[in-house]
From TrEMBL, chain B:
InterPro entries in the cross-refs: AAA+_ATPase (IPR003593), ABC_SmlMolc_Importer (IPR050093), ABC_transporter-like_ATP-bd (IPR003439), ABC_transporter-like_CS (IPR017871), Mo/tungstate-bd_C_term_dom (IPR008995), P-loop_NTPase (IPR027417), Transp-assoc_OB_typ2 (IPR013611)
Domain spans labelled ABC transporter: 11-242
GO biological process assignments: quaternary ammonium group transport
Family matches, as Pfam families: ABC_tran (PF00005), TOBE_2 (PF08402)
UniProt GO molecular function: ATP binding; ATP hydrolysis activity; transmembrane transporter activity
Species, as recorded: Fuscovulum blasticum DSM 2131
GO CC terms, sorted: ATP-binding cassette (ABC) transporter complex
Any coiled-coil regions, as ranges: none
Protein name stated in the entry: ABC transporter ATP-binding protein
Keywords from the named record: ATP-binding, Nucleotide-binding, Transport
Domain of life: Bacteria
């Protein structure tokens, strides 16, 4: 392994182009002046030609490991040299990247210290990437040899790898964004300018109390709390019907609640417009029968609220169903034998045990609502929320980066606050009720006082969801909604036309471009997301190492960062060197990986904590190392979690909009942003047709993945599975 | 067919401690020597540190202080993968997604054997535990006892220097337990393996061990052969933990060489003094060494408090002036009843004075 990383380091330094080439996936540079042309030259060639001399010290860090190659691992010199070389090389690479940019030194004090630099550098490329990776893993080899994590190279490297990527793609952009919030118009930084912008009445105004307009921050907060509470209640109602009632069509109900997950969120907003908009079915129906003048009441808080409830209730449901099922029936049975009636049992035992689930569901609803971009854009009217304000600050005529950054900071403060409050509320109490021991009891039925309202709510809501989806399907095949209701396939044809030209098959439909881009990006992102998520979960559940709590917090944090914030942070961080990837497909892939990673982590943790730890331990005592154990024992047993992570990240990559809208470019347009564009042009027919097609594509993809990953054949877990 | 050989080595702990965090001491300064080819049991109540000690041998836990040697090699800092030790887990930890054959071959794959050797060795291992022909089954298709044997075979085929057992019988029913423990002992003796065995069941420990190490509160309470521990417990804890002794306060009234005369109420009994001085002492008497006679006689007057019929014998709780004792009698034909007045005396051999007790 050591030799491999040393060679990799040298390849990166002396063979590959150090700076970024135009297209990450193209190899035109091989024929275009490499290795001497200064755009494509490797670092070694640049230094040899007397350019970019600040790259030279890294050669030392690559030479040093060669000197200890023949020493045994247990030699302290071996460990020290590798640690020193890896740490120095990595630190120097990062420092020069951050310090020297497009206009020479990036900071005034560097100019003052070294004098102005009349050279510059662009974003890093293959060479820098490979060399940096090599430095990182030389460092971990050294640390492992020094005795970190019991000398385990795989675990040490995995930790360092996850820390590095999370640091670069989550913390670095967020830090950049915080910095941008302090930026002034002339390029400096000022705290004095920050506060007036932060307390701008457009953000914090309370005009709505006296009949005017409230600031975006209050609107967002109010909406998010409403959505959080209501989705939690609705999700709980669905979960109760599924687990604690004699309801017959549970499978149907389950399918219904999952449907919105594979729906791009703003599509629901569109359906709401078809129903309640000025020319909506319900509006015109009521106008005709009751003679009430059609109004635009749906554009504002109510419309956004209804759309978000429809879109996010399933998420709350999925969180709650696990928790509600997880409450050990024997606890409830115990309560009943202690003379509690069904209502008392529910109130005193079942409900308190569901507390973590309720808190999680609320948090998810809150964050999703805060981050949601599509529905407020489609339905918001004059009801300004933070996410749309951020968007207009970046793409609108004002183009005010620091305003966008400040709004993003406010948004981030809200979600992190909710995250913190949730942890505080749950406290340190243990709510674990699943012991892994056999538990043969059954959940009691809901008390009837609760059952009747729950049934009513669930029935009405299900009917409403069905109507909404009916509208989506119907809306995609009518000529012009509310005006000309003849059935037609023209929207599908416009979007997905295929024709035979002289050069064979041609994808002439207007949607194909963004469709194929989306498919490609989602297909690349899904396995990477699953991999990063599962490795992190493995480290969190199976390994002990210093700083594990901080590690856990850091990896879970991106869960509380709304997509809109990630979008802004990525633009601010990655359109300048050292990492210059805006406008590429790569930035989309990366944003999906780190947006969706927490779900992979959670799925992994959930299933790994059900695998008895003695399985790993026995593999280790049988002579397998931790990597072999991970591969041969843990991964095969994690197939369900892998499937969940793959499906989720694929679906999210196809439906996400909040971060994507900032990161797409003409070349890499995504389906969702294309559809939003059609909506803004009032081209509802095409937008809905495209969305409907996406829903079916995702259904097919989910089914296909299920086939590919297959079912793990483990049969019944033995009742002896629980160790001590 | 290749046979299973042994590379049995000794295990030595030198002042080993294991501390979790900063305060929780799981193992406190232990010295231990396990001779090559012997079976040593770590015995103690839960939380005494016996499993932690075992896991330190395996390399699943790292010692906080001290040195651990296997053979002549210092393995203190070696992780589990690099130690020549294998372990049979309480839960068996069979990989549920692999067949019996794949499970048994698992460790061989990482030990540099080619396919042919791996298959032969694994087959020999399965034959040794009597599971020929079960190669293609999944663990979930085996009974508990069979799973246990697969776990043993999987550990055996690696021919480890030391084989570890963590409460291997606790998931088996009572009848199977006796059979499996005899099989384990037989394999150990036939192959001359070094085995370290953890259990909280004293009967199991007495049955299988060459030597028993009794642990209490993270430290070693006593080590010795089963007979030594049973007949000469070092203190009240060991006496009680191994074979449920009645601890009776007595007075040593006379010393005659190595023989002491002890007195309880009016009853006297002669037994080895174990170096104790005259004065108050504690006497440990096994329930089966208690004699009960109806009515008055030579001994201590007492009343039957509880009488329990357990089939092969009678169990009594008896109250006397010095306290309550537990006695087991073989006579099930004419048992005493609750409230009967009896006289307690002791069998000639068996009762033992407990050193280090002053009151």
């Amino acid at each position: 392994m050591l030799i491999f990383w040393i060679i990799a380091g040298w390849v990166g330094f002396a063979l590959l182009p150090w700076y970024g080439v135009d297209d990450f996936y193209s190899f035109g540079w091989l024929a275009d002046g490499w290795p001497l042309d200064k755009d494509y030259a490797p670092a070694a060639a640049l230094v040899a030609q007397g350019q970019k001399l600040w790259l030279a010290p890294m050669a030392l860090a690559l030479i040093a490991p060669l000197l200890v190659l023949r020493r045994p691992k247990s030699d302290p010199v071996f460990a020290r040299v590798l640690i020193a070389a890896g740490a120095f090389g990595f630190a120097w690479l990062v420092a020069q990247g951050l310090g020297i940019g497009l206009r020479g030194f990036n900071a005034g004090w560097l100019d003052a210290l070294f004098g102005p630099l009349d050279d510059r550098q662009f974003g890093m490329g293959y060479g820098a990437l490979v060399t940096a990776t090599a430095f990182l893993f030389l460092l971990t080899q050294g640390l492992a040899a020094h005795g970190a994590v019991n000398g385990d190279v795989f675990v040490t490297s995995a930790i360092a790898g996850v820390v590095a990527v999370v640091g670069i793609f989550v913390f670095f952009p967020i830090a950049k964004m915080l910095l941008a919030a302090f930026a002034t118009d002339d390029g400096g930084y000022s705290v004095a300018g920050f506060f007036p912008k932060l307390f701008d009445p457009r953000i914090w105004g309370l005009g709505c109390l006296s009949g005017g307009q409230c600031g975006a921050a209050w609107n967002s907060l109010f909406l998010a709390i409403l959505v959080g509470v209501l989705t939690t209640l609705l999700g709980l109602a669905f979960a109760l019907v599924l687990t604690r009632s004699g309801f017959r069509y549970k499978r149907l109900l389950r399918a219904l609640t999952v449907l919105p997950i594979i729906t791009p969120p703003f599509v629901i907003g569109l359906a709401i417009i078809l129903l309640f908009g000025l020319s909506g079915t319900v509006t015109t129906g009521i106008a005709a029968t009751l003679g009430i003048e059609p109004s635009r009441w749906i554009y504002g808080l109510w419309g956004v609220l209804i759309a978000q409830l429809l879109a996010f209730t399933p998420i709350a449901f999925l969180v709650l169903i696990g928790v509600v099922e997880g409450v050990s029936p024997s606890m409830e049975e115990a309560a009943q034998t202690l003379r509690a009636n069904r209502w008392q049992t529910f109130r005193t035992v079942s409900l308190p045990l569901m507390r973590p689930g309720l808190a999680n569901a609320f948090l998810l609803g809150f964050i999703e609502s805060m981050a949601d971009f599509g529905n407020p854009l489609v339905l918001g009217g004059n009801f300004d929320v933070l996410s749309t304000e951020i968007f207009f600050a970046i793409v609108g005529a004002q183009y005010d980066q620091s305003r966008a950054a400040i709004l993003a900071v406010v948004l981030l403060a809200f979600t992190l606050g909710a995250f913190y409050l949730q942890r505080f509320w749950l406290g340190r109490k243990s709510y674990t009720t699943v012991t892994g021991k056999g538990d043969s009891g059954v959940h009691p039925r809901m008390p009837s006082g609760l059952a009747i309202p729950v049934y009513v709510v669930v029935t009405l809501w299900s009917a409403f969801t069905l109507v909404v989806y009916g509208m989506i399907l119907y809306g995609s095949v009518v000529q012009l909604w509310g005006v000309d209701n003849t059935i037609t396939l023209k929207h599908y044809i416009t979007a997905f036309r295929v024709s035979w030209g002289e050069s064979g098959l041609r994808w002439t439909g207007s949607a194909w471009d963004s469709f194929w881009t989306t498919m490609m990006i989602a297909t690349i992102a899904a396995p990477l997301t699953a991999a990063v998520g599962l490795i992190t979960a493995y480290l969190l559940t199976r390994q002990k190492f210093a700083g594990k709590r901080a590690f856990e917090f850091g990896t879970m944090l991106s869960f509380a960062i709304p997509g809109t914030v990630i979008g802004v942070a990525y633009i601010l961080a990655f359109n300048v060197p050292p990492i210059e990837i805006t406008g590429t497909g790569l930035i989309l892939v990366i944003s999906f990986i780190f947006r969706n990673m927490p779900v992979g982590v959670r799925a992994g943790i959930a299933s790994m904590s059900q695998l008895d730890k003695s399985l790993d331990e026995s593999s280790l005592t049988l002579g397998a190392n931790s990597w072999q154990t991970f591969r041969a024992v843990i991964l095969p047993l994690l197939r369900p979690a892998i499937l969940a992570a793959l499906v989720y990240s694929f679906v999210r990559a196809m439906t996400a909009i909040s971060a994507v809208i900032f990161l797409v470019s003409a070349r890499y347009d995504m389906s969702t942003s294309y559809i939003i564009g059609r909506v803004e042009n009032n081209d509802y027919g095409l937008a809905i047709a495209y969305s409907t097609a996406l829903i079916f594509v995702m259904l097919a993809a989910v089914g296909l993945l299920q086939l590919l990953v297959g079912r793990t054949q483990i049969g019944r877990r033995t009742s002896h599975g629980e160790g001590h | 067919m290749k046979a299973i050989h042994t590379k049995a080595a000794s295990v030595r702990f030198e002042n080993v401690s294991k501390i979790y965090g900063t305060r929780v001491v799981a193992v406190d300064n232990i010295n231990l020597e396990v001779a090559a080819g012997s079976l040593v049991t770590l015995l103690g109540p839960s939380g005494c540190g016996k499993t932690t000690t075992l896991r330190m041998i395996a390399g699943l836990e790292m010692a906080s202080k001290g040195r651990i040697l296997i053979g002549d090699k210092d393995v203190t800092k070696l992780p589990a993968t690099d130690r020549d030790v294998s372990m049979v887990f309480q839960s068996y930890a069979l990989f549920p997604h692999m067949t019996v054959m794949e499970n048994v071959s698992y460790g061989l794959k990482f030990s540099g054997f080619n396919k042919e050797e791996t298959r032969e060795k694994a087959a020999a291992g399965l034959a040794l535990v009597g599971l020929k022909g079960f190669d293609g089954r999944l663990p979930s298709e085996l009974s508990g006892g069979q799973q246990q044997r697969v776990a043993v075979a999987r550990a055996l085929v690696l021919e480890p220097q030391v084989l570890l057992f963590d409460e291997p019988l606790s998931n088996l029913d009572a009848k199977l337990r006796r059979q499996v423990r005899e099989e384990i002992r037989e394999i150990q003796q036939n192959l001359g393996l070094t085995v370290v065995y953890v259990t909280h069941d004293q009967e199991e420990a007495l049955a299988v061990s060459d030597e028993i190490v009794v642990m209490r509160n993270a430290a070693i309470a006593q080590k010795g052969t089963p007979r030594q521990l049973y007949e000469e417990p070092a203190d009240a804890f060991v006496a009680d933990f191994i074979g449920e002794a009645n601890l009776i306060p007595v007075e040593i009234t006379a010393l005659d060489g190595d023989t002491a005369t002890v007195r309880i109420a009016d009853y006297t009994h002669r037994l080895p003094s174990r170096g104790l001085p005259k004065g108050p002492a504690k006497l440990a008497v096994r329930p089966s060494r208690m004699r009960l006679v109806a009515g008055k006689g030579e001994g201590v007057a007492a009343v039957i408090d509880k009488a329990t019929y357990v089939g092969s014998r009678m169990e009594y709780v008896v109250t006397a002036a010095f306290g309550t004792v537990f006695a087991v009698l073989d006579d099930v034909v004419t048992p005493f009843r609750k409230g009967d007045e009896v006289t307690i005396s002791f069998a000639a051999s068996g009762p033992v004075l407990i050193p280090g007790q002053t009151s």
